[in-house]
Specification:
This protein is mainly β and 246 residues long. The protein contains one helix and twelve strands.
C-alpha cells in the first residue's frame, strides 16, 4: 500500500521550482538523506495564470553523499490564449527542466551540518542545447533546542535557473516546531531572477514517513515575480535497520 501511494504521488506531480535534494521549502538543507533511504518531494506552485509541478527524488548513498533526479517547471497555463501544456523554446522557463542532483554533507555535531551540492541538466524545450547548473554551499544549525536556521550562497550559470550572465546569491531559511505534528518554516533566495522568492508556510507530519507543507510564495524585492501559493508533500523511507536480537 505504501509503495502504491508513493508511485501515485510521483505520477501525479511529475517541487515545482524546487532547487534540489532535501529542502526547507525550496532552499536545500545540508543534512544528507540517510544511507539506502529515499527522499521524495512532489509539489506545485499556483498563481492566477498557471500552475507549475515538479518533484525531487534523492537517494542516500552513504558516507554523507546523496544523488537523485529533479524535474521542475512542468507547466499548465490557465489563460484562454495560452497553450495548456507548453513546450516552447521561446519561453524555456515555462518548460520542464530535467536535472541530476548531487550533494555531500559534513556533520559537525547533532543538528549542525555543512553541505555542498549541485543541480545540473537540460531543458526539454531546447533539445539539450544548453547545459544548466545551479550550485550551492550552505550550513545549518539548531538553536533553542530544535529550531533550525540555515545560511548559504549559490551560483548559477543559466537564465532558467538564475540569470543569463550567471549569478551569485544568498540562501537563508528556518524551521520552528510548533508541536509533535506541526511546524512553521520559511526560506529565501536572493536576487532578481525567476528563483528569487520568500517562501513561508506550515508543515504537518502525516505519518512517520509522510509530511505535507502549504504556504505562500512571495516575490523577492525587485525580482518581478508573481505572488503564488504552494503545496508540497514529503516522503522519507527505505530499508529499516534490523534490530539485533539480544
Amino acid at each position: 500500500m505504501k509503495k502504491a501511494l508513493l508511485i501515485f504521488t510521483l505520477l501525479l506531480c511529475v517541487t515545482f521550482s524546487g532547487f534540489a535534494q532535501n529542502n526547507i521549502i525550496t532552499v536545500p538543507v545540508p543534512e544528507i538523506v540517510p544511507k539506502k533511504k529515499v527522499y521524495v518531494q512532489p509539489g506545485v506552485v499556483v498563481n492566477r495564470n498557471l500552475a507549475q509541478f515538479g518533484t525531487i527524488v534523492s537517494y542516500g548513498l552513504g558516507a554523507n553523499f546523496q544523488a537523485g533526479i529533479t524535474i521542475t517547471d512542468v507547466t499548465t497555463n490557465f489563460g484562454p490564449e495560452e497553450t495548456f501544456f507548453p513546450i516552447d523554446s521561446v519561453k524555456p522557463g515555462l518548460n520542464p527542466d530535467v536535472l541530476v542532483n548531487f550533494s555531500k554533507g559534513w556533520k559537525l555535531s547533532k543538528g549542525t551540518w555543512l553541505g555542498i551540492g549541485t543541480m545540473s541538466g537540460f531543458n526539454v524545450a531546447d533539445n539539450g542545447a544548453d547545459f544548466s547548473s545551479f550550485n550551492y554551499f550552505n550550513g545549518q544549525t539548531k538553536i533553542f533546542k530544535d529550531n533550525l536556521v540555515l545560511l548559504g550562497v549559490y551560483y548559477g550559470n543559466d537564465t532558467r535557473l538564475v540569470t543569463k550572465e550567471g549569478k551569485f546569491g544568498l540562501l537563508a531559511g528556518f524551521k520552528v516546531p510548533l508541536s509533535k505534528k506541526w511546524s512553521f518554516a520559511g526560506d529565501y533566495i536572493s536576487g532578481n531572477n525567476a528563483r528569487s522568492y520568500i517562501n513561508t508556510g506550515f508543515g504537518y507530519k502525516i505519518t512517520s514517513h509522510w509530511a505535507a507543507y502549504g504556504g505562500a510564495v512571495i516575490p523577492a524585492p525587485d525580482s518581478g515575480n508573481k505572488l503564488a501559493g504552494t503545496l508540497q508533500f514529503r516522503y522519507l523511507g527505505g530499508k529499516e535497520k534490523k534490530k539485533k536480537k539480544p
